[in-house]
Amino acid sequence: MKYPQALQKLIDSFQMFPGIGPKTAERLAFFTFLKLKDEDVAQFAKNLVGVKSDIKRCSNCGALTDQDVCEICKDPNREPKLIVVESSKNVIAFEKTKMHNGKYHVLNGLISPLKGISPDEINFRSLLNRIQNENIQEIIIATNATIEGEMTALYIKKALASTQAKVSRIGYGLPAGGDIEYADEITLIKALEGRKEM
Ligand SMILES: [Zn+2]
After folding, report:
1. H or E element: which one contains 81?
2. Which domains does the chain have, with CATH numbers?
């Protein structure tokens, strides 16, 4: 016996998400039908659509936002100091530490010759303009301690050699290969405090 079409379609949809296999997708689909209220399902569907229609990348720093320029870039009280990160998730992690009162630059990727990702395919060129336009004094490179993260950090360091900004790399209390996304706040604070000039 096969599942009715609508149920099978929902199972297939859940399976598109990372980490969700056939059994979990089946469980989620059953739960949706058996346990969720109609209005909660409607809201969930709306949220899925909303995240695609309302969210974009900040035209200045590349972080996810629902405006043209994000709140952090617009904030006049932020210091002229940038933390350079791979993803918007890292911005949230550093904001939680409350240790950094500067701004961010989100690369939305890392340089990777293996995957054929060149500096022009990440949000890097605009960083050079920002140093000028926003009179940035310090750049803290906070890419992950992976091969791609280190290569990207070195590339940025070289590319910024002729600017006036001081360039540092966060210290790693994070283990080699460690991911900022999963680091706790204390580890991130230590990593920021332990940053070293490159
Ligand atoms: Zn921004």
Report:
1. strand 81-85
2. 5-54 (1.10.8.420), 70-197 (3.40.1360.10)
